[in-house]
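cron nightly-structures :: item 1 of 1
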Amino acid sequence: CARRPERRGVRGRPRSSSATWFATADWKTRACRPRPRRHRSRAQPPAITRALTLAHGSPVLADSLDAERLALAGGRIWAGNPIDAFSQRVQRIYLDFLAGLGAGRAALMQPAVRVVVVGAGTASASLVARDPGFRLFASYGNTAVYVRRR
C-alpha cells in the first residue's frame, strides 16, 4: 500500500484535513456567489420602447445593437443576429442596409417594415434619412426612430 504524500500548507507544515475542507468551502462559496452586474439596467432605452409601441407587432428594421435590444424586449425584428438564421437574400440586403449601400434600400421597401431604429450618424441612418418613404419620428440621444409615411 503506497503512502500518499502529505499536503503541505503555506510554510511547509502539514495541512490538516479540516483546513483543506475550509479552504475548499471558502473557494466554492466565492466562486458560486452571484457577481454584481455593472452598468446593466433592466430599463429599456426610450427609443426601443417607442419603436415597439409604434410597430404594433410588425417587424422593426434596426441596426445590430438596437435589433438585439428590440428582440430582448420581446419585439419582432426584420433581420439581426444570428444572421445565418435568415435567408441569404435577407442577409445580403441587411448587410447592405447596415453599410448604407443603395442595395440596402430593399430592406426599407419591405411592406411589413413600418418602423426603423438606427444609430445617429451611422451609414444606415443616412440611408433612411434620404428615403422619402420614412420620416424622423423622434431622436433619443444617439438613436433615431423613423416611421413609414402614410
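cron nightly-structures :: done
The CA atoms of residues 59 and 76 lie 5 Å apart.
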